[in-house]
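Q: Can someone sanity-check these two? First one:
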Amino acid sequence: LYLHDLTDKQVNAIIVREAKNPTPLFDQIRENNLADEVRLPFFLRFVIERHNKGISLPSNNAMLYKDWVSLSYQQQREKYTEDVFEEATLMESLMRMALVLQLTGKMQLAKEELVKIVGEDGAKRLIKNDLITDGAEYGFKYNSIKEYLIARSLRIKSLAEVKERVCFRNREEINPVWRN
């Protein structure tokens, strides 16, 4: 299943229809350079819901993704109250899963593979998270969240370490698996 980006006209119509007092929302989207992100239906819904609750938009697209992961954590904690863990633990597990998917060129992993990456408890938590697909194998519902998590995990690496991961061995050429 692939969702096409919305057009600007579609985005504007949805905001006018769904948002309480849409003018300030349009202004925040423009000021925070979030026009590309709100073309994605799930982000548009997320942004409108935040606006309607009186929550200001994140200052950039990286913060929008971070807030989306935080929301998935909060929803998971509310749904599974007996499972106590920190948001940073979920973020680390999500980043590991994203990197393994990218490095292996896979779209999904079996539960056994998740257990190897993040341990039994981590795998159980990932499977329960709203960002992860349901089924016999597990992947990210949206490729953009996987890309954000990969970028987040690479940002703490040195340039040499990043090149080592994304380029062919002994060459400056980027491996096509990393192009996007």
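And here is the second, same format, sequence then tokens:
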Amino acid sequence: EVEQFQKNIVKRQEEVYKTLEKALTDSRAGDYATLEKRVSQLTEHLQTNHSETFCSNSLLNTILQIKKEKARIRCSFHNILPPKFSQAFSDVTITSLFTNLLDNAIEACESVNNENKFIELNTNYQANMFLIKMKNSKNPTKRSKFFPTMLTPKKVNRRIEFNKITSIAYIYVSLFSIL
């Protein structure tokens, strides 16, 4: 899914570059009517095929784009990544961590009978720490601070996904806490 999305983005970029090269040729040849037509078509193409950019990491950006498109929930992503983010975190880690976080948030929002469903994902880098803050429109129910009162198959699955997230965090930091 991610690979196909990335291929589509590359294909769109190639189309834009080809059109720009043709426009440059038109300009050099003095064919301003064709140049104007190409620029107009390119502008229209970019407006209809615009992919949002949420961060500088192409893999994470693609994951965020796909999840936002599939969720059909108001999503807000603000991501400040550490220097050399791609070198510090493997593609598998990035995919596992953010896919699990977003899948859990989407599932939580789907269980809410509310028109104002939202997901907020903010990452920041401060004092050599990579911080992730996730928020969604799910209203929390009262339950044990550490364990759900009843483990249904969905809750067990979410617990497994949560364990994946915490395992990833333990790999990269010596102290991990959830706020």
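A (reply): Looked at the second one. Confidence is low (pLDDT under 50) at residues 140-153, 174-179. The helical segments are 2-29, 32-48, 58-71, 85-88, 91-110, 153-172.
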